[in-house]
Amino acid sequence: MQPQRTICQVLAGAESGGLERHFVELCNALVERHQVTAIAHPVHAQALDRRVHFVPLDLSRGRFNPRVLLMLYRALRRTAPDIVHSHANKATAMVALLKPLLSLSFVATLHNCKSQLWMFRGCDALIAVSQSLADCLPGRQVNVIPNGIAPPAPLDAARVAALKAPLGGHPLVLAAGRLVEAKGFDVLLAAWQTVPAQLWIAGQGPQRTRLEALIDSHRLRDRVTLLGQRDDIDVLMEAADLLVLPSRREGFPYVLLEALHHGLPVIATRVPGAVDVLPQPWLVPIEDTVALAAAVTRALTDPLRLQADFAAVWERAREELSLATMVQRTEAVYRKVLHG
């Protein structure tokens, strides 16, 4: 793609999960070579590079709200971008409704499989963050571009050792994410009744009170710790022996990417992203507490097999699941649309 294309990224979410991280990191990387406008909720302003032209617009309300659609229409008219790139269903639906009124090239990314996908029909190009999600759009040409992250920075070994010291050499299992139903932490706690190992869960969210109650009812206070929101997830991953991803629903989870870039083995449910990259022996059915407990126990008792199974996965993560690769593949889609 030629430099200085005008690219407008549109996001409706007002949270701070993987979707929002993808949006921010893509904007910040693209602005190195292009003019980038970001239309999103005001909460994302601080995370965006100062070179990104930010248009604060709360699109988290109803996607058919006439006032919000009018504001988005005006913002797109003023920007007059070469490419409009919407992220996830709500933003895509709003851009799709406005497309007949605007002369624009329209790219959309599917981040999660929902029951209604009509909004993706009118796109000039479609991106899915995993092959599993691409399969949700049969009969359509879909560009599969997995999420990617920058390589982790080197860490102070003493800091990691200090975190592990209270464990006395016993293995540590880590889980991380927003404490919401989709992440399946209640399933993980049920499975942990038969796993004699320390579990740390990093994250905050509306299910914290319920998870605290489950820890008490399952009598897990001696083995499970809710860490709350953490800004040292990289240190936690270096200290851990295993990551568990017990999700019910995912697109391509960033916590999985971070673990693989840190050389950390992962046991996960069969959700999009995980099924695309993890070895089959370390994938378990969704909400199957028995299979989850058995896989964790097997991993902790046979670390040599675990290392052997993940060697190629870690190498693939370094080569293919990087932020640079994600951005290059996205630019290739833009180029195809503009010259296609």
Structural notes for this entry:
The chain has 340 residues and is an alpha/beta fold. The chain has two domains: 6-150 and 322-339, 3-Layer(aba) Sandwich (Rossmann fold), CATH 3.40.50; 157-320, Rossmann fold (3-Layer(aba) Sandwich). It is built from 13 helices and 13 strands. It has helices at 18-30, 66-79, 88-98, 131-134, 157-164, 185-191, 208-217, 233-239, 254-261, 274-277, 289-301, 303-320, 323-339, and strands spanning 6-11, 35-40, 53-56, 83-87, 105-110, 125-128, 142-144, 172-176, 198-202, 224-228, 242-245, 266-269, 283-284. The strands form two sheets. It has a seven-stranded parallel beta sheet with strand order 3-2-1-4-5-6-7, with helices on both faces. Strands 10-9-8-11-12-13 form a six-stranded parallel beta sheet, sandwiched between helices. Helix 7 links the parallel strand 9 (198-202) and strand 10. Helix 6 (185-191) runs parallel beside helix 7 (208-217) and helix 6 (185-191) crosses helix 11. The longest helix is centred in the last third of the chain and has 18 residues, at 303-320. It is elongated, with a radius of gyration of 21 Å. The protein starts with 5 loop residues before the first strand and ends with a helix. The relative contact order is 0.12. The mean pLDDT is 94.
